[in-house]
Amino acid sequence: MFLIVMPSVCCLEAADEAEPPKIANNKKDSAEMILIPGGSFLMGTAAEEVDSQFSDTGLPNDWKKHTEDERPRHKQTLKPFYIYKYEVTNAQYKAFIDATGHRTPKHWNGTDFPTDKRKHPVVEVSWDDALAYCQWAGTRLPKEAEWEYAARGPASEDGKPSRVFPWGNEWDRRLSNNASLHAGKELVNGPDWKAWYEGDHKRKFPLTTPVGLFPQAVSPFGVHDMAGNAWEWCEELQVPYGKPKNKDEANKTMRSRRGGSWANVALHIRSADRQSATQTDLNIYTGFRCAKNP
Ligand SMILES: [Ca+2]
């Protein structure tokens, strides 16, 4: 009996040792990485969910057209992966620039990031810049499904779909870095948003904040700033769900971005929202975070 038990104990221990750690550190840029366990979730948003989300947040019905690319809602099954706990910061990006001579974001002062923005997410980087960083750091960009799962988590125990926002289903403009936070009121129509955007604070753009400043907005897996702060590049060309990725329907340079930014309202802060941009596009709203295979 004893002889039978011994080998199984031995092998169980060996299997435990082979498990990747739940938190890891990328030595190249000192980034904390969180292991997202493999699992399934419903990606995207069904039409009836959009209706309730819009009534809950006060968003106008004519903006619902921006949610059409989230349909059909569909099941995704993912293998385990690491994702950075925070967006890549200016300080981390500077280390990459200093090591490689890569170009700097235009709003920087030469090779120095703006004063006091050391821990802010780097923005004004293209998808190509983000890819170059990942190659330097030994990482990759997250796939859209990975990003959305890391932000929304799995379905709840009572079978409800994954969360609308990283913290839950209820919108609260105070929980993340978004335009309505800065405006001090809900921005739910184009003219109000434009009035805020064109206001006196424009000279301070980009209104990024230090990563991890909004702990209440943490995702079910412990990932920060997936709601707002900086849009985040994902790996793939953005193509419609449920259709083959053929040459005719994908503009071959439109890459997906996720999570909204300091300049967006609840519509784009929803974790299922998708907004592509040309992969060479540089703007003060978009940065990235890395992913890595265990
Ligand atoms: Ca973000």
Gist?
The chain contains 8 helices and 10 strands. The chain has 294 residues and is of the alpha+beta class. The chain has a single domain (21-292), classed as Alpha-Beta Complex (paralog of FGE (formylglycine-generating enzyme)), CATH 3.90.1580.
Description:
The protein has 294 residues and is of the alpha+beta class. The longest helix is centred in the N-terminal third of the chain and has 17 residues, at 2-18. It has one domain: paralog of FGE (formylglycine-generating enzyme) (Alpha-Beta Complex), CATH 3.90.1580.10. The chain has a four-stranded antiparallel sheet with strand order 1-2-5-10, with helices on one face. The chain has a four-stranded mixed sheet with strand order 8-7-6-9. 26% of the residues lie in helices and 14% in strands. The two termini are 37 Å apart. Bound molecules: calcium ion (CA). Residues 87, 225-226, 228-230, 232, 259 line the site of calcium ion.
Q: Which molecules are bound in this entry? A: calcium ion
In percent, how helical is the residue content? 25-40%
Counted by DSSP, the helix tally is: 8
Name the CATH superfamily assignment. paralog of FGE (formylglycine-generating enzyme)
Strand order of the largest sheet: 1-2-5-10
Question: Strands, helices and their partners?
Answer:
Blueprint (H helix, E strand, L loop, with lengths): L1 H17 L4 E4 L4 E6 L2 E5 L3 H11 L16 E5 L2 E4 L5 H11 L26 H11 L6 H9 L26 H5 L6 H8 L33 E7 L16 E5 L7 H4 L7 E2 L7 E2 L3 E2 L2
Parallel strand pairs: 6-9
Antiparallel strand pairs: 1-2, 2-5, 3-4, 5-10, 6-7, 7-8
Calcium ion binds next to loops.
